[in-house]
C-alpha cells in the first residue's frame, strides 16, 4: 500500500456519547498525516448527516452498505453495538476492505471464528479494538515483568468493578445501556470489561491454560434513570474466575457489576519471587481509564509509585480513550505499509473469545475447562 493517507469510513457515530465519537474520531484526527476520515454512516442518512455536521466530518453516507462499497474507503471501522458486527464485517471483507472492528469481535466464539476465517481467506487485515495492551501503563508493565522487576511470577489477582450498572442497580438511559442487560446481545460485564482486561493480562503474563468460573446475576432488574422504568437483566453482574496461566502461575479474577463508591475500581496485583506490582484505576474498564502502577522489591515493605517514562506518552493524545485507540490505528498503518504484525488481529480476538467461552462453559458445568 502507498504512503498516501489511509482513508477511513466509520460506521456508528453518535456525537457526545458514542465510543467512536469519543475515541476514534479524535484519534484519527491526531494522526492526520497518516489517516483521513472519508465519512461516516449510521442507521439512516439524517442521523449520519447530523453526526457529520457536529463532528466536522465532510461526508455522510446513506447507510453502511454505501460506505463499505465506496472506492474512497480503504478501512472500514465498525463501532456499533455487538449484534450487527458479523453482518458489517462480513460485507466489508467481501468488498476487500481492511477492517477495524471494536471488541467483542462477534456475538460469541462462532461468529468471531468465522470472521477471522473470512478475513484470512480474503487476505485483508482485520484488527480488533482491544486497546488495553496499548495503554502506556500496560506497555511499561510488560517491560517491567520481562525485565525481572518481580522475578518469577508466582500468581496474579484482579478485583474490579465494571459493566453497565451504576449505583443501586441503575442505568443512565435505555437507548445506550439497555441492551447491555440482555445476555443474548453478547455485550456484558464478562465480554466487555473482563474481555478487555484479559487482553491486557495475557499480553503481559501469557496465555491462560485452564479455567474454573462462577457467573451470577445478583441484580435481576435495573432501573432506567431517564424514564424510571424497570428492565429485566439476564447478563451476569458477578464474574469469578480461577485459572492457571501457561507459566503455571495461578490466576484469580472477580469483576463486580456496577461502579465503585469511590474512584478505586481496579486492583490488579502481580506477585513474584522478588517483588510485587499493583495496577490500579477508577474502574475495571482498563482500556478507557487512567491507570497507575505501584511496586515493591526485595526487602521493601511499602509500595511506591512506578512512573511510566514520558517516552511512552509523547506524541499521543493526552485523553486516555483517544490515546489508546490512536496507538492501535498507528500500528495498523505500520502493518499495512510494512507487512508487520503489531496489531491485535481477528485471530487474536478468537483466542480471547475462546477464554470467554471457556468461562461460560466452566460456570455452566461446574468443571475446569482446559484451553
Care to describe what's here?
The protein has 371 residues and is of the alpha/beta class. It has 2 domains: 6-131 and 321-344, NAD(P)-binding Rossmann-like Domain (Rossmann fold); 133-313 and 353-364, Dihydrodipicolinate Reductase, domain 2. 33% of the residues lie in helices and 25% in strands. It has helices at residues 19-30, 45-55, 64-69, 85-94, 109-122, 136-146, 174-177, 190-205, 320-338, 346-365, and strands at 6-11, 35-41, 75-78, 98-102, 126-129, 153-162, 170-171, 208-216, 221-224, 230-232, 238-245, 250-257, 266-272, 275-281, 292-297, 304-305, 369-370. It has a 9-stranded mixed β-sheet with strand order 16-15-14-13-6-12-11-8-17. The protein has a 5-stranded parallel β-sheet with strand order 2-1-3-4-5, with helices on both faces. Strand 15 and strand 16 (304-305) form a beta hairpin. GO terms for molecular function: nucleotide binding.
Amino acid at each position: 500500500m502507498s504512503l498516501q493517507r489511509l482513508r477511513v469510513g466509520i460506521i456508528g457515530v453518535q456525537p457526545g456519547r458514542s465510543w467512536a465519537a469519543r475515541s476514534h474520531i479524535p484519534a484519527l484526527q491526531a494522526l492526520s498525516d497518516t489517516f483521513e476520515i472519508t465519512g461516516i454512516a449510521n442507521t439512516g442518512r439524517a442521523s449520519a448527516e447530523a453526526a457529520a455536521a457536529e463532528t466536522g466530518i465532510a461526508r455522510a453516507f446513506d447507510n453502511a452498505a454505501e460506505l463499505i462499497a465506496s472506492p474512497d474507503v480503504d478501512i472500514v471501522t465498525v463501532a456499533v453495538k455487538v449484534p450487527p458486527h458479523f453482518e458489517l464485517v462480513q460485507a466489508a471483507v467481501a468488498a476487500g476492505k481492511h477492517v477495524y472492528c471494536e471488541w467483542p469481535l462477534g456475538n460469541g466464539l462462532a461468529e468471531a471464528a468465522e470472521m477471522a476465517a473470512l478475513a484470512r481467506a480474503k487476505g485483508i487485515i482485520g484488527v480488533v479494538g482491544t486497546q488495553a495492551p496499548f495503554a502506556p501503563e500496560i506497555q511499561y508493565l510488560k517491560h517491567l515483568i520481562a525485565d525481572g522487576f518481580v522475578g518469577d511470577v508466582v500468581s496474579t489477582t484482579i478485583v474490579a468493578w465494571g459493566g453497565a450498572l451504576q449505583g443501586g442497580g441503575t442505568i443512565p438511559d435505555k437507548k445506550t445501556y439497555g441492551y447491555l442487560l440482555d445476555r443474548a446481545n453478547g455485550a456484558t460485564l464478562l465480554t466487555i470489561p473482563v474481555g478487555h482486561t484479559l487482553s491486557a493480562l495475557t499480553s503481559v503474563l501469557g496465555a491462560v491454560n485452564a479455567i474454573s468460573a462462577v457467573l451470577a446475576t445478583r441484580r435481576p432488574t435495573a432501573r432506567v434513570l431517564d424514564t424510571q422504568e424497570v428492565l429485566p437483566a439476564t447478563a451476569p453482574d458477578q464474574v469469578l474466575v480461577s485459572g492457571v496461566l501457561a507459566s503455571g502461575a495461578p490466576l484469580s479474577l472477580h469483576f463486580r457489576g456496577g461502579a465503585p463508591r469511590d474512584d478505586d475500581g481496579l486492583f490488579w496485583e502481580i506477585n513474584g519471587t522478588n517483588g510485587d506490582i499493583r495496577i490500579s484505576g477508577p474502574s475495571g474498564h482498563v482500556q478507557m481509564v487512567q491507570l497507575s502502577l505501584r511496586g515493591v522489591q526485595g526487602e521493601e515493605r511499602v509500595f511506591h509509585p512506578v512512573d511510566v517514562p514520558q517516552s511512552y506518552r509523547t506524541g499521543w493524545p493526552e485523553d486516555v480513550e483517544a490515546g489508546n485507540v490512536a496507538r492501535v490505528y498507528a500500528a495498523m498503518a505500520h502493518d499495512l505499509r510494512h507487512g508487520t504484525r503489531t496489531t491485535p488481529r481477528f485471530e487474536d480476538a478468537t483466542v480471547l473469545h475462546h477464554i470467554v467461552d471457556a468461562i461460560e462453559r466452566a460456570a455452566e458445568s461446574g468443571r475446569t475447562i482446559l484451553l
